[in-house]
Amino acid sequence: MIILALETSCDETAAALVMDGRTVLSSVVHSQIPEHEKYGGVVPEIASRSHTEHILPVTRRALSDAGLTMEEVDAIAVTAAPGLIGALLVGVGFAKGLALATQKPLIPVHHIRGHVASCYLACPDLEPPFLCLVASGGHSHIIHVEDYTTMRVLGRTRDDAAGEAFDKAARAMGLPYPGGVHLDRAARTGDPTRYSLPTPKVEGAALDMSFSGLKTAVLNLINTAGQRGEAIHLPDLAAAFEARVAHALCHRLLLAAEQTGLSTIAAAGGVSANTGLRQMLTEAARSRGLTLCLPPLSLCGDNAAMIGAQGYYEYQAGVRAGSDLNARASLSVERALAADFSL
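RESULT FIELD:
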């Protein structure tokens, strides 16, 4: 089964062709970084306008790269939640029109479920049940993937998502946008023990996360140093911050593995591309005899291939949408039936 997938939840306009939920035939991503860079973050109105301009050429290129025509496509999958509502509406509206014009089934896909499905593309032998850490600019979840379309959230952030904390801390350090990538690079040559930063935790909820306090600690450290006329050693501060975030994420994923007895773990989302986190997870899995799946960097950020992968399993579970499909700015990953996306 060949699915044309579309992703417009934030600032990447993406289209992909995926076969049977496991094989990527083509994947095209148009990044809006240059358009948002001067603002230091994503501007929703600009993102929506850019999606409108690029979704058709991106889709055409994905079909061309795969050597396919719409007649050879079996279904269309689209990210319908969560995300920037204006951005989502561009993708959903385009997908609805395309499905109507071509008489193809339309499959709504939850963005976080898509990140989980990126692991199926990276690890062909991966099957539920397993645990997946989904960490990005907008989300930090520890998910028990019970089967392909049944997921249970075991832990989540109470405030800032991990990627959001990375970007805000990087901005305070004077690093360019997008901050998380530049902080990662700076941290590679730093000493994580030079600066003392708090360990993020939530009292009474061992699997939940909180990164707001850690971010504030970095801001206070920088401001205090400035008032004293002291210089901040950027690589060391970046390394210290990265180590705290990575430890918080890794520790909770491992704790969830202990509590559930599951021996297969995975990580997905933009933050799963972080060098320190990948190293920590790899070493921890090896020492504990756990099976670890880490998608390649090309599948960590937002992309349509992951939407096509999850779309396949949603289709197999009977999920379909009609002309009443609507976008949702927020929606629990545990609820992602077609009825949840209806007008």
